[in-house]
């Protein structure tokens, strides 16, 4: 951030507004009216099937920060509440994701963390600091698709009256899950987007297949297909932990632009799930015609571990990484038990993609229903 922005005054038309349940419309001089201004309306309730509008803004401006803390704070709420954002009167949302996943809380679990875009100081709240500009209007709402009523404390901080030029891009986010992935079919992080813009990054979650929790899972490469790429991408990484700036496996770490903020590791048992992120802020990823982002589901392990797994489950097969359809045999594994190679995997993957685009809606289909979002969480 340019520090000069801290002390330079903008045009007189630019004003600050907080949209909270104490001032739902962000009206000047109309905050904190309930109970004589003594915290009479600090939160809102959303019944099962209900919708809560956090902010409905007319005119131009920029959303600067969103803070939310729900109650209860369980997987049904984090995956059952859906956040949607609409820009400039668009009929379909530019943002649609489970509430927890959008705020970088992977797999239905709160954890304490802070990065360049999101934060949860003690693992009980949600903060988003991504700037979201608009020219005519903005609307943020939460839809309760969980089986219970929920209370929401929230604060949407906005600057209004800004004049955005033709170079302005609209913020987008989309969530999807594959439970389980298809062998040798790359998991889609961001479906194809047509237009001009910038891929900001992603928040990923993986629940390892129960038959493969003992094996290293992160050999898959992230691939970014840019501006007409079909069979092969222009941008290609070297492995899953490499994509988030780590190396030779990954454990819990939290940095500004990369991190693995969540791990599920039952006592005395192997790790069964990871939540991790990467934001392309110092290393922007621009697209001028279209973009699509994927990650491979691959792992690696010594031959002796494959043999041990086959001994426990004779039906288990390990597909070789490559053209597909070729599996390791006991004979070749027994010849070189200390050797190790990559194998194709199938795991439960979810991805929340964040990007900017030159139009206010992406036209994507609604995200998966609640039952699919909540199923099989670790």
Q: Helices and strands in order, then pairings?
A:
Layout: E1 15-19, E2 44-46, E3 51-58, E4 61-71, H1 75-80, E5 81-87, E6 95-98, H2 99-102, E7 113-114, E8 118-120, E9 126-128, E10 132-134, E11 137-144, E12 150-160, E13 170-178, E14 187-194, E15 197-207, E16 222-226, E17 235-236, H3 240-243, E18 253-254, E19 258-264, E20 273-279, E21 285-287, E22 290-295, E23 298-302, H4 303-312, H5 330-335, E24 340-344, E25 348-357, H6 370-374
Parallel strand pairs: 6-13
Antiparallel strand pairs: 1-12, 2-12, 3-11, 4-9, 4-10, 4-12, 5-6, 5-11, 7-8, 8-9, 13-25, 14-22, 15-20, 15-21, 15-25, 16-17, 16-22, 18-19, 19-20, 23-24
- Uncertain segments are none
Measured as a percent range, the helix fraction is under 10%
What's the CATH class of the largest domain, please? Mainly Beta
How many structural domains in the coordinates? 2
Net shape: globular
Class from helix and strand fractions: mainly beta
Oligomer: single chain
Beta strand %: 35-45%
CATH structural fold name of the largest domain? Jelly Rolls
